[in-house]
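Dear colleagues,

As part of the handover before I leave the project, I'm documenting each prediction I ran so the next person doesn't have to rerun anything. This entry is a single chain, and its sequence is reproduced below.
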Amino acid sequence: MTAAIPELQGVYLKAISAYSQRGNVTGIDIGYKYSGLGDRRTKQISVRIHVDRKIPVSELEAAELFPKEIEGIPVDVIEANYKTHAVATPPRARLSAAATIQPGVSIAHFKRSAGTIGLIVYDNATRRPCLLSNWHVLVGKLPARIGDPILQPGVSDGGELLRHKVATLERYILDQNGDAAIASLTNSRPFQPNQLESGVVVSRARTPQLGEVLEKSGRTTGITQALVDGIGRYFVRYGTERVGIDGFKLVSVQDGNPGNQEISAKGDSGSCWYDPASAEGVGLHFAGETDANPRAEYALACFLPRVLEALNVSLVLLTLEQPNEAEAVAVSSVAVSSVA
């Protein structure tokens, strides 16, 4: 059962306008309010301001304080510091040279470390099959050039330029629409669209819903599930640049993460978060936590429909008569699923 909450859109936009330029703000979104010391998720929906470190009220100037509510909507302040994931050591199956290229295995620009193939997509301009992953996986830093070699596995996983080139860099974005890039396959190896292990084939994209549980297949942590906890804009540093990216936050399905569940880890960047029941793609994983505390386990994803539109690609090979399925995404479309 879902319910649209468009009345929060205006308050969310006011918070973006008022607070997004503050250097200590790491995100502004619509999501579940947390109680007590910020470690228990409630069913109340609020506009949330994320900061890199909470400071006692007694140490703040009046101008630095965030309001407790805006136009009657509660405001929650959450401590969270988001960073793109560098590389970690996963199970061997995901970081070896795959006989058949598919989502969930290691990939990277030939001068970078390693991330994850999120999806096989099709270039609407050339109709060629492409790999979809993050900007920081397939580009990493400028000057990268269109046509640069992309390796499977990535360099950190033993990828070598002369043996493991499977694609060439085609297009990329690093802006409000997402951290994403595509690479055109070279036909050096066969490919299939099935997510590794789960077998899910993502052929449609949609927007997220608060409270729903999504799944991803990542290079490092494999198949994991997480709950959509907030939808908004998150601020991540790429070198010296602070980039605001629209998307959503995922947390442990069990409140407080009592089982110390790993949602994502270094090297999962580029994974696709999808609905395991409907096989609809929802987001492209691009960042996660920097805190070892199980309660701080979380992930960030940019909106998949917006990424597909910005990169001019589709999840299926379109006929000349078919329109692009990518749909526009706005926080005004936030919906809420019931959460136990």
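The first helix runs from residue 7 to 19. Residues 326-330 have pLDDT under 50 and may be disordered.

All the best with the project,
I.
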